[in-house]
Each structure stands twice: as structure tokens, then as C-alpha cells.
Give the backbone structure.
Amino acid sequence: MKIEIDVEQFARDIKAGKSIGGANGALGSLIKQLTEAALAAEIDSHLAQDLSSNRKNGYSSKTMKSDHGTFELDVPRDRNGNFEPEIVKKNQTSITSEIEDKILSLFALGNSYSQIAKHIEDFYCVGFSKATISAVTDKIIPMLNEWKVRPLEAVYPFVFLDAIHYKVKEDGKYISKAFYTVLGVKLDGKKEVLGLYLNESEGAKFWLQVLTDLQNRGVQDILIASVDGLKGFPEAINSVFPNTEVQLCIVHQIRNSLKYVGSANQKQFAKELKSVYQSFTKEEAQLELDKLEEKWGKKYPIVFTSWRNKWENLTVYFQYPEDIRRVIYTTNIIESVHRQFRTLTKTKGAFPNDDSLLKLLFMGIKNAQEKWTMPIRNWSLTISQLAIHFDGRLDDALNL
């Protein structure tokens, strides 16, 4: 069957001054004709293969969105009702992925559904409801679920674990939930977010589940884990990865300490505390902590009790050379990821459900990882030092 396309009308529209694209552009009309021509060819092919006494049965109309505006598409029907067009699926409302890609791109930058709808209308002269945009962004969820269970590498020299909190609606009320981030540094020195986890609170018991998930996905060994000062965290890590050395985050410890120091003394105390964690050796750090306690101990005893109780895990980094120490000295690597999360979510007071939060943060991670193309500074020297310090544990991974 030969389908006639009115290309001459397209030419006349252009000559008459009509724009090519846009809501009322000449190209929109041509796209409608081409799509309907393809549908006509599809139903003819379908009927030719149908052995029953089937035949055409008029048309149904549906509103389609394209890069060049909205138009009404006449979709042919058959009497038996078994015609399933391929070029425009039964529930499809857009004939191009370009708009959907643009929606996802805008969503990944932290735009609200209202902002996305306005951008799309400005770009393409096509109106999208919030429900439609939500349906488009829901396409992220299968990608997220596949990503969450992907296999991981066997050995990670460094892993950073931390949580950030958000308000999420559950059973009609908003509650605070902990969003767990696990960031690894691979053998090539490049960063990779290993997983996303969401729970009602941050606790060592849940971290145990997270670590078990990493193990089930192929992780056999972690050399150094850098974590916050959550009680029971080091024990949870070593119950799954018994040979991992656990470094408590100095930044978290400093912040926690300053909460118990009077506001008038915080600046001075923070300045003097540097002499402890910026020492060259663990022994020197111990002496500096003693001096600091002599001055401030009676006034702020809880601060020094915390440092003493966590001392062994706070001072792990002193045993390493400078290049290794620089990587684990703080959790700045994971803090930078969380800063990106906060940028994405700063206009969101709360989230209507878990998926709305997870799909936004997942897109944020995908954006971040596109920029992680270079290894950590001085990585060749760092991995060589790790191979010496952790004798034998990197041999197979590095083919030594």
C-alpha cells in the first residue's frame, strides 16, 4: 500500500512564514502524517497475516507529545481488537525519548516538578502535568534497583561509610530517615558509590545489614574503613570483614566535641585541638591531648572521655605513610558527596515517599560519577604503600 505524505503542504507552510519547530510549527504536522502513515502500514501488514475474517474498524484518537508540539493522532483499529501497533505503543503518549531525557536531566539537577514542567514548555511548547513528569522519573526506579544489586569488586583499599538524614512521609506523617552512603575507592584509585540504603535511624545493627549486602555482592576484603563515631560501628564492620582496619572520622569527632564546649570558648578550643589530630605521631598526639585536658578537662570532661574511649580507632591513621594518611585523615571524600546531595535536595522540605528520595539521590550519584574520571592524587605511590603495609592482601587483586 502506498501512503501519500503531503510534503507540498509542509513546503507551503514554510513559505508562508510558519516556523519549522514549535507548538504550531510545520514539522509537527509532518510528524503526524508520517506517524499515521506508519500506523496504516502496520495495520495492513497485521490484517494480511490474520487468517480470521478480520478487517479495519475505524480509528481511535490519542493526544501525542513530540519535540515539536502536541497533536491528535488517529490510530487505526481492527474489528477483532488484537492489533497492537509497534511504532506507537498502546499507552505511549510521546513519540520521542528526547523530551523524557530532558525531564530526567532536569530532575537530576534538583529541579521541582513545577520547574521541570515550565522548562519543558519553554523548550518544546508542550505542556506536561506533574503526574506525567512523576511517571517519567519513575523510569529511574528499575535502573536504581538493577544498580543496587550489581556485582562489586573483590577488594577495596578504602571504604567510607556515613549517613545523611531526610524527612520522608510514611503512614500519613513525616518522619526522619537515615540515608546510608557507602563510597569505595577502587584499585585504580577512582571513586565509586557502592550502594544506597534507607532506614528509619542510623545504627550499628543496620550497618551490619549494609556490610553483609556488600559481602553478598562480591566484596571479599576492605583494607581501611573510615566511619563516624557511632557506637558499635567498628565492631559491626569487623564482624563481617575481620581484617579491616577502622578509622573513626576526625571531623565527626571534632564536631561532636564542640557541641559540649561553651560558645564563648569554641573557637579557642577548636584551634588548640588541632595540635592533637595534626601531630606527626600517635605518641605526640597523646601528649597534646594530655596538655589539652589539663587546661580544659575540669570544664568539659565529657569531651575528653569521648576522645579517650575512641582513641584507638581515632588514631589508626598515624601508623600509615603520609599518602595513605591523606586519604583517610577525614571523611572529606564522602562529605563532598553529601554536599552534592544537599544541593539537589535543598528546595525539598520533605519527600512524599522513599522512592521519590532514592531516585533523586541516585541521579545525583550518576552525575557525580561522570566527573570521577581521575584517580586520587598520588595514587600509584599510595597503592604501593598499601601493598607493603597490608602484606599479601593485594597480591591477587594486583596480580603481584
Q: What stands out?
A: The two ends are 67 Å apart (CA to CA). Strands lie at 56-66, 69-78, 155-170, 173-185, 191-199, 221-227, 245-248. The first helix runs from residue 7 to 15.
